[in-house]
Specification:
single chain; five-stranded antiparallel β-sheet; three-stranded antiparallel β-sheet; 10 strands; 40% helix
Length: 326
């Protein structure tokens, strides 16, 4: 299986590998079905622009590295409840949110690498909440590289899940970090460190960010991690930049936007070519990434011409030359 833009779907050659859900978490179309053109148009109208499919090229690719969609949807619902409670001055769903943060941290701890579901694989009404979940997942990947303990992982995850909660509490982009912070520090169960993630995630390492233009060590490490994950996730989900190009964009912010240590941990924890990525190798062979074994930058690939699988970690002279458009 692999993730494709919905515009590349071919009814004759592909079928769904993962179900498609609406904004209430209900199955619109189950896995192992072909997608009728009328459904494709309905999905597009809902803001769904990516599908998880299986075709002859991706047969046998399990995407076991990807967070399973029911778990993802449950986390999205927890975030939605929290953001709605803040905006409507209702009781904050602390228990559900902390359970969600723990389950996400557990997913990251038990996997060699965890890959998020594209935000655009779900209805547009849930994109902002799905974005928060994906930012938390990416942040936990970075924290794993930094050897965070369970308490640190929890506080980081909670802060990342809530990093944009201020958007429902104020008008204008620049005010949401402070609005979110002021709200979260009033929630007794939420750590002040988690609240600072919301407050500082738009600050830049060189002092050019907002709202306070603080720099370097003045920015809490949790917030720096969240800010980097937020930057990357927006590139991938909103601008549809390929993961390896988005990683290059993050690396270009080394020492200016982000702490070099956190950039390095990000590079060590995020896969530039997730399973299902089609690539061209340095020998000219087109291939598809089938799995990630022990090395994020050196996955196992399958030659599209012969079907031969090659673990790049065992072939040091064979490189990924470039991304191959579907």
């Amino acid at each position: 299986m692999r993730v494709i833009p919905i515009t590349e779907y071919n009814e004759q050659a592909m079928q769904l590998a993962r179900a498609v859900y609406d904004s209430r978490g209900r199955v619109l179309l189950a896995a192992n079905h072909t997608v009728h053109p009328k459904y494709l148009e309905r999905f597009k109208h809902m803001g769904i622009s990516h599908l998880v499919i299986e075709d002859s090229e991706s047969k046998g690719i399990t995407l076991e590295e990807m967070l399973d969609i029911p778990t993802w949807l449950e986390l999205i619902e927890h975030v939605k409840l929290a953001y709605t409670a803040a905006a409507e001055h209702k009781t904050f769903p602390t228990k559900q949110l902390f359970q969600g943060a723990k389950s996400l941290a557990d997913e990251v701890k038990r996997r060699p690498v965890a890959i998020s579901v594209p935000v655009t694989a779900i209805a547009a009404e849930l994109h902002n909440y799905a974005h928060a979940v994906n930012v938390a997942l990416l942040s936990l990947q970075i924290a794993k590289s930094l050897s965070y303990n369970d308490l640190q992982l929890r506080d980081l995850a909670v802060g990342c899940l809530l990093h944009d909660i201020g958007k429902g509490l104020c008008s204008g982009r620049d005010g949401h970090p402070e609005a979110g912070f002021n709200y979260l520090r009033s929630v007794r169960e939420v750590s002040l460190l988690s609240a600072h993630v919301a407050f500082q995630h738009h600050e830049q390492y060189d002092g050019s960010g907002f709202p306070r233009k603080i720099s370097g060590a003045e920015i809490h490490e949790y917030a720096q991690i969240c800010g980097l994950a937020n930057f990357y996730e927006n590139l991938v989900s909103v601008l549809h930049v390929a993961p390896h190009e988005a990683i290059e964009a993050v690396m270009a912010q080394h020492g200016s936007g982000f702490d070099p240590r956190i950039v390095q941990s990000f590079v060590q924890g995020v896969a530039p070519y997730p399973p299902g990525s089609k690539v061209v190798l340095s020998n000219g062979e087109p291939a598809i990434v089938t799995r990630i074994d022990s090395h994020l930058q050196r996955p196992t690939v399958r030659f599209l011409t012969t079907g031969q699988e090659v673990p790049l970690a065992e072939h040091p002279t064979l490189m990924i030359h470039r991304h191959l458009e579907s």
